[in-house]
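Hello Y.,

Per our agreement to keep a running log of every chain we model this quarter, I'm adding this entry. I've kept the format consistent with earlier entries: sequence first, then predicted structure.
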Amino acid sequence: MRYSKLFGKTKKEAPKDEVSTNAKFLMRGGFIDKLMSGSFTLLPLGYRVKEKIEQIVREEINKTDASELLMPLLHPKTIWNETGRWDKAKEVMYQFKKGDKEYALSFTHEEIVLDLARKYVSSYKDLPIKVYHFSTKFRDEPRAKSGILRGREFIMKDLYSLHETSSDLDKYYFEVAEAYKKVFKRMNLDVKITEAPGGVFTDNVTHEFQVICETGEDTVYYCDRCEFSQNKEITKLKEEDRCPNCEQGRIKIGRSIEVGNIFRFGTSYSEKMGVCYIGKNGQKQYVHFGSYGIGITRLIGAVVELFNDKKGIIWPKEIAPYKVHLIGLNKKADEAYQKLLDQEIEVLYDDRDVSAGEKFADADLIGIPVRLVISEKTNGKIEYKERAKEVTELLDLEEVVKRV
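Predicted structure for the entry above:
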């Protein structure tokens, strides 16, 4: 992609009312644009990052034999009344009336999935069901701050599963947990699987996927030796207590960002909505239900909060908008650009007629993993520099292709 043709260029300053690191760098870097508090446009660079993240999630979730679909964003009040959440979640749901009917914008999709299930499930032979989608969620967030980390509308991957038994639900629940760990590892994120309350979703203990980050809004208590972790909202532990899990480590306290969560509802929702199947014994039984979420746009913000320096973003390789950022300071750059494209390498080519200093500063701000420079000084070679390192090398094009 020629940067001269790209919609959404860098800016020298971020809006003064945005104080978070992710908001400053994503807005200055041309990844997002703010429509209003809690509502952002994903510009082309940001959209590419979103697509990379979704593909990683899709690949790992598909390995659990889940099927992708797409569900509506506009929901009737009647379906939310079946579980009682029209009133229970009204503080965070966008609810409105049109004529003599009332509706909500998608806060989550448990009720919608269960409505689908009671139309298609009749026998134990129809189970288990595992379906997911990537879609917009709307929540009346009273603290719509921290840039793209906390929005009033955002993109989420939500997965839902229905099972014959609680043991089968448990098995899949932890299978998804392992899939999530693989997702986050591919993004260079070290997550802690944290016990947490269920909020308006369930009274049961749930699990959050938390990334330790000093700018995070959550607080977790975790062991310095094993994987034990609890959210501040449910823990009775204190810092330096002995770990109740391994009994060897000590409890530490850290600020964190939640990037995913998983819930087991058992039969509570299916009983309220009458989602049944005929079991092997010929008796009617209620399905066991679980849901599993990953905040896609929130992940974009979390990654930026974690991977940056004073110059800008440092994208992990797998989710960067492009693999290399080519800076052309003479006409030979056009030829190199085309050769990189021929090798199917994703390239952002800064072909603008601006100063070298401006191009270098923008490359650091945008944060693509590898910067390539072609100028008279490189003498027929290409200057190769990784965004996270200071060292530069002069390489032939063939060597560049091998490395990226």
